[in-house]
Design brief:
CATH architecture of the largest domain: Alpha-Beta Barrel
CATH superfamily of the largest domain: Aldolase class I
Number of strands: 11
Bound molecules: flavin mononucleotide
Distance between the termini: 43 Å
Number of helices: 16
Order of helices and strands: HEHEEHHEHEHHEHEHEHEHHEHHHHE
Structural class: alpha/beta
Number of domains: 2
Oligomer: single chain
Length: 345
């Protein structure tokens, strides 16, 4: 039994939450090097979320039986809630990879049409699919033939800020059998700049017959509650769920495991344990750094801690450094996680 599990009190204290429950799906976003089993375990230990997208899985590596594929396709601890996200530029490879994943227990299979990282987009994958509705439509047709489960696409607004084009593009995807869209309403070039245009989520929803989930810059519990009350079929959370893996439980009265205050030290150490248990040695340091890049934003001297952690070469050294920080700053060990009022719809 580890310290963290022992420390979670069974009693749940909710403030001001009596008349509010978000009924829409709340989803963990796909994030490369972050949305893996260890993070899902951590989120689940606080009460979980409705669906967990995996980090993008390379279709080529999966079909070619790459050395780390068993880690990428580990759906634990709640395989039925996992959406496997595939990335690739080749329709045949994506279809073959989707056929492999379709044999697994899952919530669905998703195709990445949103990643704008140059290394991905340059190959014709990610957001580059959005440059050609015909190419994307033909690829989806091939993938659809292999997938009996739910097929979804996560995308951005497109190469340009053109909502009419976005609607036409998504109608084509829908006509080829895509059953849900997750929209991060920024263009390829915007990366994380400018505000996401959440009004496009409602626009797209009105133009399609399939559900449209919104994503982008939800960075507080209040913002999540506000977005969940908006014109969408669900809200997908990325970076906030790394900083605050309890966020889903925090905004849902029904969540079973969230205490009034979260112990940040125990959460951080627990994450390191989970990482060591569920990820290959080769991935440990990069994945720990990725996680703490966001989690350390909970700390007053978070940037300093991130920089120090980035220099460590062992998870055990990271754990020592974190514990030393909390010994020096015991007042930062616990973070209150109050409930959130519904606010105006
Ligand atoms: C480190 C990192 C890795 C990401 N990797 C992926 C990915 O593998 N697939 C994908 O579709 N989007 C990826 N994204 C984009 C997120 O899914 C999401 O669209 C974006 O972070 C905006 O949501 P947020 O503001 O809630 O973080 C990534 C984002 C980050 C920060």
């Amino acid at each position: 039994m580890n310290r963290f599990q022992n420390s979670v009190p069974l009693e749940i204290i909710w403030n001001d939450m009596d008349n509010y429950t978000i009924k829409k799906p709340l989803l963990l976003a796909p994030m490369a090097e972050i949305s893996h089993r260890a993070l899902r375990e951590l989120i689940a230990s606080f009460g979980g979320c409705d669906e967990y997208y995996t980090e993008m899985i390379s279709a080529g590596a999966l079909v070619g039986n790459g050395p780390f594929e068993s880690y990428y396709t580990d759906g634990g601890p709640c395989p039925g809630r996992v959406v496997y996200q595939l990335a690739g530029a080749d329709g045949g490879q994506l279809a073959a990879a989707a056929a492999i994943l379709d044999r697994k227990e899952k919530a669905g299979i998703d195709i990445n049409m949103g990643c704008s990282a140059p290394a991905i987009a340059r190959t014709g994958a990610g957001v580059r699919w959005m440059a050609s509705p015909d190419r994307a439509g033909e690829m989806i047709r091939r993938v659809r033939r292999e997938v009996k489960g739910r097929l979804s696409v996560k995308l951005r607004t497109g190469m340009e800020d053109d909502p009419e084009y976005l609607i036409r593009f998504c109608r084509r995807l829908e006509s080829e059998g895509v059953e849900r869209i997750a929209l991060h309403p920024r263009t390829a070039k915007e990366k994380f700049k400018r505000r996401p245009r959440w009004e496009y989520v409602g626009l797209l929803r009105g133009a399609l017959g399939i559900p449209v989930v919104g994503n982008g810059d939800v960075n507080s519990p209040e913002e999540l509650v506000r977005r969940a009350a908006g014109d969408n079929d669900g809200v997908m959370i990325g970076r906030l769920a790394v900083r605050a893996p309890w966020i889903f439980a925090q905004v849902r009265r029904s969540a079973p495991a969230l205490p009034e205050r979260v112990n940040l030290e125990e959460t951080a150490l627990r994450f390191l344990e989970l990482l060591a248990r569920y990820q290959p040695r080769e991935f440990l340091l990069s994945r720990a750094r990725r996680f703490f890049a966001y989690f350390c934003d909970n700390l007053l001297w978070g940037t300093y801690v991130k920089n120090r952690l980035a220099r460590e070469q062992e998870l055990s050294a990271m754990a020592r450094l974190l514990s030393a920080y909390f010994r020096e700053h015991p007042d930062q060990r616990e973070l209150p996680v109050p409930g959130v009022s519904p606010g105006p719809a």
